[in-house]
Amino acid sequence: MSDPVEAGDQGGAVEGVSAGAHGDPRADPAAALSGSVLTDGAWHRLHPLTPVFRGGLVVVVVAGVLIANLRERLLAFVVPMFAPGPHPPADDPRDPVDYVFAHNLVFLVLLGAIVVALLLVGLFALSWRFHTFRVTAADVEVRRGVLFRSHRRAPLDRVQGVNLTRPLVARLVGMAKLEVMGAGLDSNVELSYLSTRSAEAVRRDILRLASGVRAETDAAGPGPHAGRLASARAAVGDGLTGLVFGAEPAPDRSESVVHVTPLRLIGAQVLSDDTVWWLIGSTAVIVAGALWFPPGLFLALPFILGYGGYAARHVVRAMRYAIVPTPHGVRVTYGVLTTVTETIPPGRVHAVAISQSVLWRGTGWWTVTVTRISGTRHGEQRAEEFARVMPVGTLDDARRVVALLLPWLSAHELDTMTDAAHARAAGGFTTTPRRARLLRPLAWRRNGFALGSRVVTFRRGFLARSAALFPLGRAQGVELAQGPIDRAFGVARVRVVTVRGHVRTRLGAIDADAAASLAGDVADRAAAPDTVAAATEREESHA
Amino acid sequence: MTTTPDPALPRSSRTVIEPGLDAEVLDRGTFAPVGAPRRGWLTGTDAADPAPWHRLARPYLRTELIELALWTVAVMGASVLLGIWTGAWWPYPVGGVLVVVLLVWAAILPRRLRSWGYRLRADDIVVRRGILLQRELAVPYGRLQLVDIAHGPLDRAFGIAQVKLVSAASTGSVVLPGLRQEAAELLRDALIELAEQRRTPL
Question: pTM value?
């Protein structure tokens, strides 16, 4: 490693060595641009405690297993009088401890243990030394690995969002994991771990660069020089206050556009689709079991009871939810034990849907999901969380959230969406023609679309209602399809092609001519420069 | 190269079609052009749109038929071998049914390949396909992320290439299965250039 590296992550307590002095042309403009120490364009290391969290847990587990196995021996050794029972014979050749004692190998064994421990510590320290990152004006880069080096450079104008995750244990010592979402498969850049303070600073700078706000100088620069111990103390202190007062500074939550009480979250889970399916499934299993195969009941029991845990996890994960507009994007925070803060820079939303389950009809609750590009490899569970920007709220809440996500929507377009949510009549929507009502026996009056100048709204569902908005400047294409049954009814299907996500993109059973003209219009407007400019707007007006 | 079309103008009056490519190359050796697609189609409604439809290359039918013939032979051979080996009767009817399916497939193949078409409009490429389930997909040039050309050994023997247009969409990648090598390369270069010009940020 030829580049000078600063052991950078001490909560703003690093001596500021100018990056420009190293003759790296990329670093120069960045140094002028950024406010915080870690984003000055030079290479920095992660938090010194990182190895403990990333790999050190293995050591802890191994030590734990060893200690558990040798517990009685240790007890007997340290406090002989408390050792219960008769002393085991010391000449049992099969017992390694006895063997060691019998052959006077204590010193050797201790030496070996110390060497192994030192070796492990050394390896972790080495990998930590070689794991560096830098943020320049154009991209964020991570280098890692000792023998197998890897170097990842992610362009900042492709950043889809920044997540700050703080698992419980890391929170205790004031550390956080920063994940920069890229636009390709497995293209995320993970900076784990940083001290919470630096993570927030890095996030702020990355978002500022990613959201296109360039010429902003940061007043909160590097703090006064402090010792390593002092900064470590500060980090731990931050962690403790963070545990008590939440991951984000206090005003964050009060500014939230939507307030969700824990009671409502629990209610929402109890009345969710999951619950409906669980009820149906377990009733079926119980009835079938009682009729034909009684032992099956016991086999199914764990699955039936398991739902409780699943539901509780869901609720806990969504607790302390907040959504706040910031100059660099919309910030969504949730979680009790592990807190997650996602930031969606402006112009990264490809589709938004508001929907409600059958049982939410009575309470008037809605949930908001989005489709946006995520470069994670994480599973379905993570993806679902990632998509759900509002777990539960009223229609007004949903409207406010959508207005945050797509700030360029006109009041009329928002009205269209809220109308779509409860209206049964056509109301500006082109719906399934009467002749094709067999294809949508219940929902045919609701199933339809409304085309705005920069957005198209799909309305669906009779029992479980939903409305989906597709910013046309974000559409990757449009597809028109007609199968034989469709042809018999003179209808067609339209699909707004988007990136992979949770918002359903198909709308079926629309009059063939209407569908064709819709698809034509969507295709035209998707390519129109002004539509694209609106939907991909990088800089917020109130920045 | 062409100028960016004025979005204020209606599509039909935009002049920029077939940007920078020789339509003659695209149409050499392709299936005979069919008339306008049926009523109500995405781009069929716009009679004034001058972008012509291009078709797949004729030799592609040959490669597909050869492939089907190989499959048929393989299925027949496998069922006969299986019949002799096990001494059972059932491999023959099963193989027979499979062969019939393959033959029917081969019979509708020309019609199926003729149903494919693509046209380069001012702002997007439109691909249509299908007989029973008809689909028509429009992808704006600016959304294209990359263009692939692929060909198998059989394709190469007949100078056929497959062009794959990849956008950021999960399912929006468009495959044009049988173009002549020259046409494929021309199309790729033109599309890449258009994509560069109109790139929209992700």
Answer: 0.78
